[in-house]
Amino acid sequence: MTVTPRLSLPLLAAGQAQKHVTHNDALVRLDALIHLVVDSRSQSAPPGSPSELSAYIVPADGTGIFAGRAGQLALFEDGGWIFLTPRVGWQAWIADEAEHTLWTGTEWRRASPLSGLGAEKWGVNATADDSNRLVVSSEASLFNHAGGDHRLKLNKANAGATASVLFQSNWSGRAEFGLAGDDDFRVKVSPDGAAWHDALAIDRAGGGVALPGSPWAAGQNLLINGDIQINQRGFAGGALAAGAYGFDRWKAGASGANLSLSGFTVSLNTGAILQPVEPAAWGISSFAGMTLAVSVEGLSGGDLSVRVGSQSGTISAGAGRRFVALTPAPGDSGPLAVSLAPVAGAVSFARVKLEIGRIATHWSPRPIGAEQQLCRRYHWRPGGTVLIDAYQAAGAAARQTLPLPVPMRTTPTVSYGISQDINVQGSDRGIVASSPEWAQAYVTAQALGRVRAAFDTIAFDAEL
User: Fold this and answer.
1) What values do phi and psi take at 431, rounded to 5?
2) Reading across the β-sheet that carries 91-94, which strands appear in turn?
3) What is the distance between the alpha carbons of residues 97 and 111, in angstroms, rounded to a whole number?
4) What's the rounded Cα separation, in Å, for the pair 21 and 24?
5) Which residues, in sequence order, are bridge partners of residue 445?
6) pLDDT (tens digit per residue) in 382-440
7) From CA 373, how far away is CA 464, in angstroms rounded?
8) Which residue segments constitute the domains of the chain, with CATH numbers given?
9) What is the pTM of this model?
Protein backbone atom coordinates (compact mmCIF):
# COMPACT_ATOMS: atom_id res chain seq x y z
CA MET A 1 0.00 0.00 0.00
CA THR A 2 1.51 3.30 -1.07
CA VAL A 3 -1.27 5.68 0.06
CA THR A 4 -3.63 5.85 3.02
CA PRO A 5 -7.11 4.41 2.39
CA ARG A 6 -9.15 7.48 3.38
CA LEU A 7 -7.31 10.62 2.28
CA SER A 8 -4.86 9.01 -0.17
CA LEU A 9 -1.88 10.48 1.66
CA PRO A 10 1.47 9.18 0.35
CA LEU A 11 3.21 6.65 2.65
CA LEU A 12 6.91 6.37 3.26
CA ALA A 13 8.53 3.30 1.75
CA ALA A 14 11.23 1.28 3.50
CA GLY A 15 14.64 2.55 2.63
CA GLN A 16 13.14 5.47 0.72
CA ALA A 17 15.46 8.32 -0.14
CA GLN A 18 14.38 11.92 0.41
CA LYS A 19 11.70 10.91 2.89
CA HIS A 20 11.09 14.53 3.69
CA VAL A 21 9.54 15.10 0.24
CA THR A 22 6.91 12.41 0.73
CA HIS A 23 6.32 13.49 4.30
CA ASN A 24 5.91 17.14 3.38
CA ASP A 25 3.53 16.24 0.52
CA ALA A 26 1.32 14.37 2.98
CA LEU A 27 1.37 17.31 5.39
CA VAL A 28 0.38 19.73 2.62
CA ARG A 29 -2.49 17.42 1.66
CA LEU A 30 -3.62 17.21 5.29
CA ASP A 31 -3.40 20.97 5.59
CA ALA A 32 -5.78 21.29 2.66
CA LEU A 33 -8.28 18.58 3.55
CA ILE A 34 -8.67 19.04 7.29
CA HIS A 35 -11.18 21.86 7.88
CA LEU A 36 -11.48 22.05 4.10
CA VAL A 37 -12.34 25.50 2.73
CA VAL A 38 -12.90 26.01 -1.00
CA ASP A 39 -13.29 29.33 -2.73
CA SER A 40 -16.27 28.31 -4.87
CA ARG A 41 -18.14 25.41 -6.42
CA SER A 42 -19.62 27.45 -9.28
CA GLN A 43 -16.48 28.97 -10.87
CA SER A 44 -15.98 27.12 -14.14
CA ALA A 45 -12.46 28.35 -14.97
CA PRO A 46 -9.43 28.32 -12.67
CA PRO A 47 -8.28 31.73 -11.37
CA GLY A 48 -5.63 33.54 -13.32
CA SER A 49 -3.32 34.01 -10.32
CA PRO A 50 -3.93 31.20 -7.82
CA SER A 51 -2.23 31.04 -4.42
CA GLU A 52 -1.26 28.12 -2.20
CA LEU A 53 -4.65 28.61 -0.49
CA SER A 54 -6.65 28.29 -3.70
CA ALA A 55 -9.11 25.40 -3.64
CA TYR A 56 -12.28 24.73 -5.68
CA ILE A 57 -15.00 22.19 -6.19
CA VAL A 58 -15.12 21.83 -9.96
CA PRO A 59 -18.62 22.47 -11.44
CA ALA A 60 -20.13 20.48 -14.31
CA ASP A 61 -19.23 23.19 -16.83
CA GLY A 62 -15.54 23.31 -15.91
CA THR A 63 -13.21 24.73 -18.57
CA GLY A 64 -9.49 24.71 -19.19
CA ILE A 65 -7.66 22.50 -16.72
CA PHE A 66 -10.98 22.08 -14.84
CA ALA A 67 -12.67 20.42 -17.84
CA GLY A 68 -13.87 16.86 -17.20
CA ARG A 69 -13.29 17.16 -13.44
CA ALA A 70 -16.89 17.77 -12.28
CA GLY A 71 -17.33 17.22 -8.54
CA GLN A 72 -13.60 16.82 -7.86
CA LEU A 73 -11.52 18.92 -5.48
CA ALA A 74 -9.00 21.17 -7.24
CA LEU A 75 -6.09 22.14 -4.94
CA PHE A 76 -3.21 24.41 -5.94
CA GLU A 77 0.01 22.88 -4.54
CA ASP A 78 3.65 23.61 -5.31
CA GLY A 79 2.83 25.80 -8.28
CA GLY A 80 0.34 23.40 -9.94
CA TRP A 81 -3.17 22.01 -9.71
CA ILE A 82 -3.91 18.58 -8.28
CA PHE A 83 -7.34 16.95 -8.34
CA LEU A 84 -8.81 14.66 -5.69
CA THR A 85 -11.89 12.47 -6.05
CA PRO A 86 -13.97 12.93 -2.88
CA ARG A 87 -15.25 10.06 -0.75
CA VAL A 88 -18.77 9.89 0.64
CA GLY A 89 -18.98 12.08 3.72
CA TRP A 90 -16.21 14.54 2.86
CA GLN A 91 -17.17 18.05 3.95
CA ALA A 92 -16.22 21.52 2.80
CA TRP A 93 -16.99 25.14 3.60
CA ILE A 94 -17.93 27.09 0.44
CA ALA A 95 -16.54 30.57 0.97
CA ASP A 96 -18.52 32.47 -1.67
CA GLU A 97 -21.79 30.92 -0.45
CA ALA A 98 -21.00 30.86 3.28
CA GLU A 99 -22.40 27.32 3.37
CA HIS A 100 -21.32 23.96 4.73
CA THR A 101 -21.58 21.15 2.15
CA LEU A 102 -20.92 17.43 2.02
CA TRP A 103 -20.31 14.90 -0.76
CA THR A 104 -23.15 12.36 -1.02
CA GLY A 105 -21.42 10.18 -3.57
CA THR A 106 -23.19 11.89 -6.47
CA GLU A 107 -23.28 15.59 -5.56
CA TRP A 108 -22.04 18.25 -3.18
CA ARG A 109 -25.07 19.16 -1.09
CA ARG A 110 -25.57 21.72 1.64
CA ALA A 111 -25.31 20.03 5.01
CA SER A 112 -27.50 22.72 6.59
CA PRO A 113 -28.55 26.26 5.62
CA LEU A 114 -26.49 28.21 8.11
CA SER A 115 -26.71 31.58 6.37
CA GLY A 116 -29.52 33.80 5.18
CA LEU A 117 -28.93 32.50 1.66
CA GLY A 118 -30.63 29.22 2.58
CA ALA A 119 -30.37 26.02 0.58
CA GLU A 120 -30.95 25.83 -3.18
CA LYS A 121 -32.61 22.42 -2.69
CA TRP A 122 -33.66 20.52 0.38
CA GLY A 123 -35.01 16.99 0.59
CA VAL A 124 -36.28 15.30 3.73
CA ASN A 125 -36.36 11.56 3.18
CA ALA A 126 -36.61 12.38 -0.55
CA THR A 127 -34.64 14.00 -3.36
CA ALA A 128 -35.27 17.63 -4.28
CA ASP A 129 -34.99 18.82 -7.88
CA ASP A 130 -35.07 22.09 -9.82
CA SER A 131 -38.89 22.17 -9.86
CA ASN A 132 -39.50 20.85 -6.35
CA ARG A 133 -36.69 22.48 -4.41
CA LEU A 134 -38.19 21.49 -1.06
CA VAL A 135 -39.37 17.88 -0.83
CA VAL A 136 -40.67 16.11 2.28
CA SER A 137 -41.62 12.44 2.31
CA SER A 138 -43.35 11.59 5.59
CA GLU A 139 -46.67 10.70 7.18
CA ALA A 140 -47.21 14.28 8.37
CA SER A 141 -45.64 17.73 8.40
CA LEU A 142 -45.87 20.26 11.22
CA PHE A 143 -45.39 24.03 11.02
CA ASN A 144 -45.58 25.33 14.58
CA HIS A 145 -45.78 28.84 16.02
CA ALA A 146 -42.85 30.42 17.81
CA GLY A 147 -44.89 31.80 20.68
CA GLY A 148 -47.66 33.55 18.77
CA ASP A 149 -49.13 33.48 15.28
CA HIS A 150 -48.12 31.32 12.35
CA ARG A 151 -48.91 32.12 8.71
CA LEU A 152 -48.09 30.12 5.59
CA LYS A 153 -47.38 32.48 2.68
CA LEU A 154 -47.53 31.62 -1.03
CA ASN A 155 -46.43 34.47 -3.29
CA LYS A 156 -46.70 34.64 -7.09
CA ALA A 157 -45.05 36.94 -9.60
CA ASN A 158 -48.13 38.55 -11.17
CA ALA A 159 -51.89 38.26 -11.63
CA GLY A 160 -51.60 35.77 -14.47
CA ALA A 161 -49.40 33.37 -12.47
CA THR A 162 -50.57 30.76 -9.95
CA ALA A 163 -50.19 30.46 -6.17
CA SER A 164 -52.15 27.43 -5.02
CA VAL A 165 -52.25 24.20 -3.05
CA LEU A 166 -52.67 21.12 -5.25
CA PHE A 167 -53.99 17.78 -4.04
CA GLN A 168 -52.96 14.72 -6.07
CA SER A 169 -53.89 11.04 -6.23
CA ASN A 170 -51.02 8.90 -7.51
CA TRP A 171 -49.43 12.09 -8.90
CA SER A 172 -52.59 13.13 -10.81
CA GLY A 173 -54.34 16.34 -9.72
CA ARG A 174 -57.80 16.04 -8.19
CA ALA A 175 -58.35 19.30 -6.27
CA GLU A 176 -56.71 22.72 -6.03
CA PHE A 177 -57.36 25.93 -4.17
CA GLY A 178 -55.69 29.32 -4.36
CA LEU A 179 -55.05 32.02 -6.95
CA ALA A 180 -54.96 30.10 -10.21
CA GLY A 181 -54.35 32.27 -13.26
CA ASP A 182 -55.88 35.43 -11.77
CA ASP A 183 -56.30 37.11 -8.38
CA ASP A 184 -59.71 35.65 -7.46
CA PHE A 185 -59.71 32.83 -4.91
CA ARG A 186 -60.88 29.54 -6.42
CA VAL A 187 -61.50 25.95 -5.46
CA LYS A 188 -61.22 23.57 -8.42
CA VAL A 189 -61.67 19.82 -8.89
CA SER A 190 -60.69 17.39 -11.63
CA PRO A 191 -61.68 13.82 -12.47
CA ASP A 192 -58.43 13.06 -14.30
CA GLY A 193 -55.86 15.81 -13.67
CA ALA A 194 -56.44 17.30 -17.12
CA ALA A 195 -59.97 18.75 -17.15
CA TRP A 196 -60.61 21.15 -14.28
CA HIS A 197 -63.90 22.56 -13.00
CA ASP A 198 -64.35 25.58 -10.75
CA ALA A 199 -66.42 24.62 -7.71
CA LEU A 200 -66.13 27.93 -5.86
CA ALA A 201 -64.85 31.38 -6.78
CA ILE A 202 -64.58 34.49 -4.59
CA ASP A 203 -64.34 37.91 -6.21
CA ARG A 204 -61.20 39.66 -4.97
CA ALA A 205 -62.81 43.10 -5.28
CA GLY A 206 -66.04 42.73 -3.31
CA GLY A 207 -65.93 39.26 -1.78
CA GLY A 208 -68.87 38.02 -3.84
CA VAL A 209 -69.10 34.23 -3.86
CA ALA A 210 -69.97 32.22 -6.97
CA LEU A 211 -70.46 28.48 -7.38
CA PRO A 212 -69.68 28.05 -11.09
CA GLY A 213 -70.27 24.30 -11.08
CA SER A 214 -73.69 24.43 -9.40
CA PRO A 215 -76.62 25.22 -11.72
CA TRP A 216 -78.85 26.19 -8.81
CA ALA A 217 -76.38 28.96 -7.89
CA ALA A 218 -75.97 30.37 -11.40
CA GLY A 219 -76.08 34.14 -11.82
CA GLN A 220 -78.88 35.69 -13.86
CA ASN A 221 -78.18 36.02 -17.56
CA LEU A 222 -78.67 39.63 -18.69
CA LEU A 223 -78.63 38.54 -22.32
CA ILE A 224 -81.91 37.42 -23.85
CA ASN A 225 -81.87 34.33 -26.07
CA GLY A 226 -78.29 33.59 -25.02
CA ASP A 227 -78.55 30.04 -26.36
CA ILE A 228 -79.94 31.43 -29.65
CA GLN A 229 -82.86 29.00 -29.78
CA ILE A 230 -85.62 31.55 -30.44
CA ASN A 231 -85.85 32.54 -34.07
CA GLN A 232 -89.11 34.39 -34.79
CA ARG A 233 -87.76 35.88 -38.01
CA GLY A 234 -86.92 32.43 -39.37
CA PHE A 235 -83.28 33.34 -40.03
CA ALA A 236 -81.66 30.37 -41.77
CA GLY A 237 -78.07 31.47 -41.18
CA GLY A 238 -75.62 33.07 -43.59
CA ALA A 239 -74.96 36.74 -44.23
CA LEU A 240 -76.55 39.52 -42.18
CA ALA A 241 -76.32 43.13 -43.30
CA ALA A 242 -74.99 45.71 -40.88
CA GLY A 243 -77.52 46.36 -38.12
CA ALA A 244 -79.91 43.61 -39.33
CA TYR A 245 -81.44 41.23 -36.82
CA GLY A 246 -81.29 37.48 -37.39
CA PHE A 247 -81.93 35.27 -34.38
CA ASP A 248 -84.02 37.02 -31.73
CA ARG A 249 -82.20 39.89 -29.99
CA TRP A 250 -79.00 39.37 -32.00
CA LYS A 251 -78.03 41.67 -34.84
CA ALA A 252 -75.01 42.16 -37.07
CA GLY A 253 -72.34 44.70 -36.22
CA ALA A 254 -71.29 47.68 -38.29
CA SER A 255 -69.53 45.51 -40.88
CA GLY A 256 -72.23 42.87 -41.07
CA ALA A 257 -71.84 39.24 -40.04
CA ASN A 258 -71.94 35.71 -41.36
CA LEU A 259 -73.03 32.99 -38.96
CA SER A 260 -74.86 29.69 -38.65
CA LEU A 261 -76.40 27.59 -35.90
CA SER A 262 -76.19 23.84 -35.34
CA GLY A 263 -78.02 22.72 -32.22
CA PHE A 264 -76.73 25.06 -29.55
CA THR A 265 -73.42 25.82 -31.31
CA VAL A 266 -72.99 29.10 -33.17
CA SER A 267 -70.37 29.33 -35.89
CA LEU A 268 -69.39 32.97 -36.37
CA ASN A 269 -67.47 33.08 -39.60
CA THR A 270 -66.95 36.81 -40.15
CA GLY A 271 -68.02 40.11 -38.68
CA ALA A 272 -69.61 40.65 -35.30
CA ILE A 273 -72.94 39.98 -33.63
CA LEU A 274 -74.23 42.16 -30.86
CA GLN A 275 -77.11 42.55 -28.46
CA PRO A 276 -78.18 45.88 -26.92
CA VAL A 277 -78.90 45.26 -23.23
CA GLU A 278 -81.40 47.50 -21.47
CA PRO A 279 -80.44 48.13 -17.82
CA ALA A 280 -84.00 49.12 -16.92
CA ALA A 281 -85.27 45.72 -18.05
CA TRP A 282 -83.30 44.19 -15.17
CA GLY A 283 -84.10 46.83 -12.55
CA ILE A 284 -80.74 48.58 -12.97
CA SER A 285 -80.32 52.30 -13.56
CA SER A 286 -76.99 51.99 -15.39
CA PHE A 287 -74.27 49.43 -16.08
CA ALA A 288 -71.54 52.10 -15.91
CA GLY A 289 -68.89 51.16 -13.35
CA MET A 290 -70.44 47.71 -12.78
CA THR A 291 -68.12 44.76 -13.48
CA LEU A 292 -69.73 42.26 -15.83
CA ALA A 293 -68.62 38.80 -16.92
CA VAL A 294 -69.20 37.69 -20.51
CA SER A 295 -68.87 33.94 -21.02
CA VAL A 296 -69.38 31.25 -23.67
CA GLU A 297 -69.09 27.48 -23.69
CA GLY A 298 -66.70 25.38 -25.76
CA LEU A 299 -64.94 28.15 -27.66
CA SER A 300 -63.04 26.60 -30.58
CA GLY A 301 -61.35 27.77 -33.76
CA GLY A 302 -59.67 30.74 -32.09
CA ASP A 303 -60.11 33.48 -29.51
CA LEU A 304 -63.20 35.64 -29.27
CA SER A 305 -63.07 39.43 -29.13
CA VAL A 306 -65.65 40.85 -26.72
CA ARG A 307 -66.84 44.42 -26.40
CA VAL A 308 -69.08 45.70 -23.61
CA GLY A 309 -69.95 49.32 -24.22
CA SER A 310 -66.62 51.09 -24.73
CA GLN A 311 -64.56 48.37 -23.05
CA SER A 312 -63.04 45.39 -24.82
CA GLY A 313 -61.34 42.12 -23.95
CA THR A 314 -60.67 38.62 -25.24
CA ILE A 315 -61.99 35.19 -24.34
CA SER A 316 -59.33 32.54 -24.96
CA ALA A 317 -60.31 29.39 -26.80
CA GLY A 318 -60.78 26.27 -24.72
CA ALA A 319 -63.19 23.70 -23.37
CA GLY A 320 -65.81 24.44 -20.75
CA ARG A 321 -67.10 27.89 -19.84
CA ARG A 322 -64.63 30.61 -20.85
CA PHE A 323 -65.04 34.25 -19.88
CA VAL A 324 -63.70 37.75 -19.64
CA ALA A 325 -64.68 40.38 -17.05
CA LEU A 326 -65.09 44.01 -18.15
CA THR A 327 -66.22 47.16 -16.36
CA PRO A 328 -68.20 49.65 -18.50
CA ALA A 329 -66.87 53.20 -18.35
CA PRO A 330 -68.79 56.09 -16.74
CA GLY A 331 -69.99 57.12 -20.21
CA ASP A 332 -71.53 53.70 -20.89
CA SER A 333 -74.99 54.68 -19.69
CA GLY A 334 -78.27 53.65 -21.28
CA PRO A 335 -78.53 50.47 -23.36
CA LEU A 336 -75.24 48.59 -23.38
CA ALA A 337 -74.05 46.97 -26.61
CA VAL A 338 -72.45 43.56 -26.03
CA SER A 339 -70.66 42.37 -29.16
CA LEU A 340 -68.77 39.21 -30.11
CA ALA A 341 -66.34 38.83 -33.02
CA PRO A 342 -63.60 36.35 -33.98
CA VAL A 343 -60.07 37.56 -33.33
CA ALA A 344 -58.99 35.77 -36.51
CA GLY A 345 -60.83 33.29 -38.69
CA ALA A 346 -64.08 31.52 -37.83
CA VAL A 347 -64.95 30.52 -34.27
CA SER A 348 -67.63 28.32 -32.69
CA PHE A 349 -69.19 28.62 -29.26
CA ALA A 350 -72.45 28.05 -27.39
CA ARG A 351 -74.67 29.58 -24.71
CA VAL A 352 -73.59 33.20 -24.37
CA LYS A 353 -74.00 34.74 -20.93
CA LEU A 354 -73.66 38.22 -19.41
CA GLU A 355 -73.85 38.48 -15.64
CA ILE A 356 -73.02 40.87 -12.84
CA GLY A 357 -69.69 40.18 -11.16
CA ARG A 358 -66.13 39.36 -12.05
CA ILE A 359 -66.68 35.59 -12.18
CA ALA A 360 -68.68 33.57 -14.70
CA THR A 361 -71.08 31.00 -13.30
CA HIS A 362 -72.80 27.89 -14.65
CA TRP A 363 -75.21 28.13 -17.57
CA SER A 364 -78.78 27.90 -16.32
CA PRO A 365 -81.51 28.33 -18.95
CA ARG A 366 -84.74 30.11 -18.23
CA PRO A 367 -87.97 28.25 -19.09
CA ILE A 368 -88.63 28.57 -22.80
CA GLY A 369 -91.90 30.39 -22.18
CA ALA A 370 -90.14 33.01 -20.05
CA GLU A 371 -87.41 33.45 -22.68
CA GLN A 372 -90.03 33.90 -25.41
CA GLN A 373 -91.79 36.57 -23.36
CA LEU A 374 -88.51 38.45 -22.93
CA CYS A 375 -87.93 38.31 -26.69
CA ARG A 376 -91.46 39.56 -27.36
CA ARG A 377 -90.74 42.73 -25.40
CA TYR A 378 -88.67 43.73 -28.45
CA HIS A 379 -90.16 41.78 -31.35
CA TRP A 380 -93.32 39.70 -31.81
CA ARG A 381 -94.58 37.74 -34.77
CA PRO A 382 -97.94 36.24 -33.84
CA GLY A 383 -98.19 33.89 -36.82
CA GLY A 384 -101.43 32.98 -38.51
CA THR A 385 -103.93 35.45 -39.91
CA VAL A 386 -105.95 38.28 -38.41
CA LEU A 387 -109.31 38.34 -40.22
CA ILE A 388 -111.89 41.13 -40.14
CA ASP A 389 -115.19 40.05 -41.71
CA ALA A 390 -118.14 42.44 -41.14
CA TYR A 391 -121.26 44.05 -42.69
CA GLN A 392 -120.79 47.80 -42.80
CA ALA A 393 -122.26 50.93 -44.34
CA ALA A 394 -120.26 52.70 -47.00
CA GLY A 395 -117.37 54.61 -45.43
CA ALA A 396 -117.78 52.84 -42.06
CA ALA A 397 -114.90 50.98 -40.49
CA ALA A 398 -114.76 47.62 -38.74
CA ARG A 399 -112.11 47.27 -36.06
CA GLN A 400 -110.53 44.46 -34.05
CA THR A 401 -108.41 45.01 -30.91
CA LEU A 402 -105.19 43.04 -30.70
CA PRO A 403 -103.67 42.78 -27.20
CA LEU A 404 -99.89 42.31 -27.29
CA PRO A 405 -98.60 39.29 -25.30
CA VAL A 406 -96.28 41.43 -23.12
CA PRO A 407 -95.81 45.18 -22.80
CA MET A 408 -93.23 46.01 -25.45
CA ARG A 409 -90.24 48.26 -24.88
CA THR A 410 -92.04 51.13 -26.64
CA THR A 411 -95.00 51.50 -28.98
CA PRO A 412 -93.95 49.17 -31.78
CA THR A 413 -93.88 49.67 -35.50
CA VAL A 414 -96.05 47.18 -37.35
CA SER A 415 -95.49 45.41 -40.64
CA TYR A 416 -97.90 43.00 -42.31
CA GLY A 417 -99.08 41.51 -45.54
CA ILE A 418 -102.63 41.41 -46.94
CA SER A 419 -103.76 38.08 -48.31
CA GLN A 420 -107.38 39.07 -49.02
CA ASP A 421 -109.60 42.14 -49.13
CA ILE A 422 -113.21 42.54 -50.26
CA ASN A 423 -115.19 45.79 -50.59
CA VAL A 424 -112.35 47.86 -49.13
CA GLN A 425 -112.34 51.61 -49.62
CA GLY A 426 -109.09 52.21 -51.43
CA SER A 427 -106.27 51.03 -49.21
CA ASP A 428 -107.99 51.96 -46.00
CA ARG A 429 -107.14 48.84 -44.04
CA GLY A 430 -104.25 47.98 -41.77
CA ILE A 431 -102.86 47.32 -38.30
CA VAL A 432 -101.61 50.10 -36.03
CA ALA A 433 -100.16 49.98 -32.52
CA SER A 434 -101.67 52.46 -30.13
CA SER A 435 -99.40 51.70 -27.14
CA PRO A 436 -96.76 49.18 -26.01
CA GLU A 437 -99.66 46.93 -24.95
CA TRP A 438 -102.35 47.29 -27.64
CA ALA A 439 -102.77 47.30 -31.40
CA GLN A 440 -105.79 47.49 -33.65
CA ALA A 441 -106.68 46.02 -37.03
CA TYR A 442 -109.22 47.95 -39.14
CA VAL A 443 -110.87 47.99 -42.54
CA THR A 444 -113.23 50.61 -44.14
CA ALA A 445 -116.08 49.51 -46.40
CA GLN A 446 -116.33 51.03 -49.87
CA ALA A 447 -120.06 50.29 -50.21
CA LEU A 448 -122.85 49.00 -48.05
CA GLY A 449 -122.43 45.29 -47.51
CA ARG A 450 -119.88 42.76 -46.48
CA VAL A 451 -116.33 44.04 -45.99
CA ARG A 452 -113.43 41.69 -45.44
CA ALA A 453 -109.65 41.95 -44.92
CA ALA A 454 -107.10 39.26 -44.00
CA PHE A 455 -103.69 40.27 -42.56
CA ASP A 456 -100.74 37.86 -42.37
CA THR A 457 -96.93 37.91 -41.82
CA ILE A 458 -97.57 40.39 -39.03
CA ALA A 459 -94.59 41.71 -37.05
CA PHE A 460 -94.46 44.12 -34.15
CA ASP A 461 -91.01 45.62 -33.66
CA ALA A 462 -89.62 47.65 -30.75
CA GLU A 463 -85.93 46.69 -31.07
CA LEU A 464 -83.17 49.01 -29.97
Assistant:
1) -130, 130
2) 37-38, 91-94, 99-103, 108-112
3) 13
4) 5
5) 424
6) 999 999 999 999 999 999 999 999 999 999 999 999 999 999 999 999 999 999 999 99
7) 17
8) 35-137 (no CATH), 217-376 (2.60.120.260), 379-461 (2.60.40)
9) 0.70
